[in-house]
């Protein structure tokens, strides 16, 4: 019996060591086979729109759109959050939510139509706005005053301007990132 | 080797002269027939309500039956003094134990296959659909349960002095492994930090043959996705054909280890007694 | 015994032969048609289109055509199955930019790997019929295209199958396109079979959707109808999100059980919609309802799923006259107490009908213990339906008044769900299986009886 309790204590010790080793809130890679958005249940694509919360007890919660992450925060509060991450639009690197720069426009297509895109540096956000010819640059703080309007009711507007020739090409391109 | 075979054939003969074996045979047959009647309108294939409840019922009955028959057989040797007699002969403890194990396996598996044969035959006669793969999987599930719990039964039998003690310990182990398992684990693991829960749970699952075999069958029935994203890699892996081989290997290791412990207990008893 | 066995073997061998021969035949036939097509002359479809007058009907001669093609005037293009349009450019094989264009009856192969589509429609009242599309990107895109018809096409994935679903394109993809009808299409192995976004008044009828990520994926489509579709082996059959006033009826969603997040029908943020007379069978979760209100879910057959129906934050819905049969767990519910659930048939419910009106006087309550447990600690999903878990759940009776419950469960099925076989695409013979079973079971029985007699009864 003594041997058994020894072995058991050893096992526990190993678990302890393993457990204590990781105290940092590191973001997990997106696995498209199993990851679904905690809020809307859609598959989380391994793209720039994915966001992630690591809770204080080490649970990784993944979202397909920053809007869904916002909804989670509304529902559950921010007390349990160890760290929250968004991704850079260009290289998909995980960046802290508070350090990122955001660009919003209702015409940007994101998985849940919140129309917000995140960037690591402000410069690339500005470039993006310049390139698209539209978009509002927001910091993480400014985002807290954002209305979080989903652009599902904007479709009438689209209809008027969408008929000219090369518009579908843009749409097609924007579509790359969606769902 | 010859010793082993002799012990085994003696065990089989004793087993089938034992009224307990026949009462369990009747119990198991009646029970498997009632399984059929409970869900008489549904097709039996894949992981569904029918197969799910069949799994649970088998989990209640088979381990208990195995624990009783197995442990009683060993205590009987002590109570009736035949072990004292046998140990004066140049009979190795290992051959004795393996012979016992083999003999008892034959007795128990005969009971199980009688029950399944009867159930299957009646299924065909009343024209019900019972997918052959599902049937075979259930048979394998029962065999796995019997073989794993039999090694525990020998362990119980070698620790107990008499039938009553064996009975008490058997019921305790049965309750712990089959009924109390998740309650106890949820209570204990709830005290651990979140990140430890999964690895500790997996570790303990390997210790409980009832859970181990149940999970294997659920996955093989195609129900693995219900275990959620935490285990999907395991599920995919076991679902492959090679998963079965690994599982059989795992069972053999399990049986080997517990028989070694039983051997160690008997050897100690032999050198002292 | 032996002669029976020999008979079986004989039947088996004959069967195998038959299958092999027929297989060989189809392969030969298939490759023959392929060859025939490829040996023909290659035409420039754009040139033919440019030369045509608006309103013309073009009947394409047999042979190969090259894309991409832009159609910017009213034309009716008709092909046959001896016509193949291939496109290797990043443009769509066919771009339709004029109202009233009809394209029908030929093969299209979109070879460009990446975000490209076989057909892009940006005009109203376009008809696409009887096309056989193979694509390495998207199938058919409709952008700002209203009142169109997509009828009887087949769309399938051309690249390797092992690619992640996220890297594929959608079969039929609508954005901001209203009043379209999508009917009788067969879509296989794409990302989403039919993807619908920001569009209204759509009719999605009698399509077959296999092996894709989501069979039908709706985002913000109000006032649409989804009727008579069949979905099998997708991750989720119908993913219905952010909609109002949608009718989902007479669909069959079967065998969505492989993925850890699979469902038959998922409703998220759905209002005022009707889900009726669907068959959901053999899925991981039959019907999943989250954050949805004021919906009617009625007369569905929910059979043999791992979890029959699952509610999460769903309120004020009416769920009645559904049949729940042989699900591993009938129902799970959290934070969903204000639904009207009544007169469903639950085969595991212990009903008691005292006044003989066919309705049980004992309500059927859904125990939330397991779902609450695993939402806190997903690792405990390992205990799904373990014997100990059933025991533990039955001990849990906290707050029983607030559990989701069926106030008046039916004693008998409302629809005869069992006798109505689901319209599965795969069929299998039962005869050989029965003989096989007979063989196994009789062997088992005979061996066991022999052992008992030999060693127990006979005093040898």
Automatic annotation (TrEMBL), chain A:
The keyword Signal applies. Residues 1-19 form the signal peptide. It holds the Pfam family NosL. The keyword Signal applies. Keywords: Signal. This is Copper chaperone NosL. It comes from Paenibacillus anaericanus.
From TrEMBL, chain B:
The chain crosses the membrane at residues 20-38, 50-69, 106-126, 132-159, 171-192, 244-266. Pfam families: ABC2_membrane_2. One of its GO terms (molecular function) is ABC-type transporter activity. Keywords: Membrane, Transmembrane, Transmembrane helix. GO terms for cellular component: plasma membrane. The keyword Flavoprotein does not apply. This is ABC transporter permease. It comes from Paenibacillus anaericanus. The lineage of its organism: Bacteria, Bacillati, Bacillota, Bacilli, Bacillales.
UniProtKB/TrEMBL annotation, chain C:
Keywords: Membrane, Repeat, Transmembrane, Transmembrane helix, Ubl conjugation pathway. InterPro entries: Carb-bd_sugar_hydrolysis-dom, NosD_dom, Para_beta_helix_rpt-2, PbH1, Pectin_lyas_fold, Pectin_lyase_fold/virulence, SCF-Subunits/Alg-Epimerases. Residues 52-197 form the Carbohydrate-binding/sugar hydrolysis domain. Coiled coil: none annotated. Pathway: Protein modification; protein ubiquitination. The chain crosses the membrane at residues 436-457. This is Carbohydrate-binding/sugar hydrolysis domain-containing protein. It comes from Paenibacillus anaericanus.
């Amino acid at each position: 019996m003594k041997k058994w309790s020894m072995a058991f204590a050893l096992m526990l010790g190993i678990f302890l060591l393993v457990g204590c080793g990781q105290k940092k809130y590191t973001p997990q890679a997106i696995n498209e086979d199993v990851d679904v958005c905690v809020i809307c249940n859609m598959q989380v694509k391994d793209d720039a729109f994915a966001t992630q919360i690591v809770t204080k007890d080490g649970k990784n919660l993944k979202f397909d759109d920053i809007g869904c992450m916002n909804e989670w925060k509304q529902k559950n509060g921010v007390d349990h959050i160890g760290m929250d991450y968004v991704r850079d639009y260009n290289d998909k690197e995980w960046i802290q939510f508070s350090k990122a720069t955001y660009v919003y426009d209702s015409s940007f297509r994101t998985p849940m139509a919140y129309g917000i895109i995140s960037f690591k540096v402000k410069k690339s956000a500005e470039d993006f706005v310049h390139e698209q010819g539209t978009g509002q640059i927001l910091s993480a703080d400014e985002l807290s005053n954002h209305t979080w309007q989903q652009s599902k009711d904007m479709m009438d507007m689209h209809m008027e301007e969408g008929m000219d020739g090369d518009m579908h090409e843009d749409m097609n391109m924007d579509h790359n990132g969606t769902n | 080797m010859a010793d082993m075979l002799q012990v085994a054939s003696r065990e089989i003969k004793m087993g089938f002269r034992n009224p307990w074996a026949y009462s369990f045979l009747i119990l198991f047959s009646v029970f498997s027939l009632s399984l059929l009647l409970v869900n008489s309108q549904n097709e039996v294939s894949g992981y569904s309500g029918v197969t799910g409840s069949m799994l649970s019922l088998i989990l209640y009955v088979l381990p208990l039956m195995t624990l009783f028959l197995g442990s009683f057989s060993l205590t009987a040797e002590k109570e009736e003094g035949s072990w004292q007699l046998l140990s004066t002969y140049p009979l190795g403890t290992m051959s004795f134990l393996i012979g016992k194990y083999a003999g008892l396996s034959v007795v128990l598996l005969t009971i199980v296959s009688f029950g399944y044969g009867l159930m299957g035959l009646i299924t065909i006669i009343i024209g019900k659909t019972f997918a052959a793969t599902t049937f075979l999987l259930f048979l394998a599930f029962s065999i796995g349960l019997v073989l794993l719990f039999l090694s525990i039964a020998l362990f119980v039998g070698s620790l107990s002095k008499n039938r009553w003690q064996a009975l008490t310990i058997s019921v305790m182990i049965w309750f712990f492994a089959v009924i109390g398992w998740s309650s106890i684990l949820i209570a204990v693991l709830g005290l651990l930090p979140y990140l430890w829960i999964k690895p500790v749970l997996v570790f303990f699952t390997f210790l409980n043959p009832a859970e181990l075999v149940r999970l294997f069958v659920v996955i093989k029935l195609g129900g693995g996705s219900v275990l959620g994203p935490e285990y999907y890699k395991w599920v995919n892996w076991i679902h492959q054909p090679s998963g079965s081989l690994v599982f059989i290997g795992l069972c053999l290791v399990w049986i080997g280890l517990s028989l070694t412990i039983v051997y160690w207990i008997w050897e100690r008893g032999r050198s002292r007694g | 015994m032996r002669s029976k066995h020999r008979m079986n073997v004989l039947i088996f061998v004959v069967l195998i032969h038959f299958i092999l021969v027929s297989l060989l035949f189809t392969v030969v036939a298939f490759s023959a048609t392929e060859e025939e097509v490829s040996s023909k002359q290659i035409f420039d479809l754009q040139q033919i289109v440019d030369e045509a007058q608006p309103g013309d009907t073009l009947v394409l001669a047999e042979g190969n055509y090259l894309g991409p093609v832009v159609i910017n005037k009213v034309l009716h293009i008709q092909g046959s199955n001896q016509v193949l349009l291939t496109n290797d450019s990043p443009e769509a094989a066919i771009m339709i930019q004029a109202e009233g264009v009809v394209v029908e009856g030929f093969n299209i192969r979109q070879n460009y790997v990446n975000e490209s589509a076989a057909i892009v429609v940006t005009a109203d009242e376009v008809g696409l019929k009887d096309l056989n599309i193979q694509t390495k990107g998207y199938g058919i895109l409709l952008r700002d295209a209203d009142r169109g018809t997509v009828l009887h096409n087949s769309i399938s994935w051309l690249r390797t199958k092992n690619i992640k679903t996220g890297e594929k394109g959608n079969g039929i993809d609508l954005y901001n396109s209203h009043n379209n009808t999508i009917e009788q299409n067969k879509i296989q192995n794409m990302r989403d079979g039919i993807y619908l976004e920001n569009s209204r008044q759509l009719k999605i009828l009698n399509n077959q959707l296999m092996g894709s990520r989501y069979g039908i994926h709706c985002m913000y489509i109000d006032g649409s109808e989804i009727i008579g579709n069949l979905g099998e082996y997708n991750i989720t059959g119908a993913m219905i999100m952010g909609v109002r006033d949608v009718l989902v009826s007479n669909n069959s969603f079967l065998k969505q059980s492989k993925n850890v997040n699979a469902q038959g029908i998922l409703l998220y943020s759905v209002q005022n919609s009707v889900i009726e007379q669907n068959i959901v069978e053999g899925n991981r979760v039959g019907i999943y309802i989250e954050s949805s209100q004021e919906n009617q879910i009625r007369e569905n057959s929910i059979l043999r799923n791992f979890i029959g129906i699952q509610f999460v934050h769903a309120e004020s819905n009416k769920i009645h006259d559904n049949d729940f049969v042989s699900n591993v767990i009938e129902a799970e519910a959290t934070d969903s107490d204000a639904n009207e659930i009544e007169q469903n048939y639950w085969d595991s419910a212990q009903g008691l009908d005292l006044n003989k009106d066919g309705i049980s006087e004992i309500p059927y309550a859904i125990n939330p213990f397991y779902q609450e447990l695993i939402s806190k600690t997903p690792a405990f999903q390992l205990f799904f339906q373990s014997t100990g878990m059933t025991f533990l759940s039955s001990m849990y009776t906290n707050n029983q008044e607030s559990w989701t419950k069926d106030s008046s469960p039916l004693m008998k099925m409302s629809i005869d769900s069992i006798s109505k076989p689901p319209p599965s695409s795969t069929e299998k013979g039962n005869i050989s299986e029965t003989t096989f079973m007979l063989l196994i079971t009789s062997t088992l029985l005979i061996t066991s009886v022999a052992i008992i007699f030999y060693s127990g009864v006979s005093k040898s």
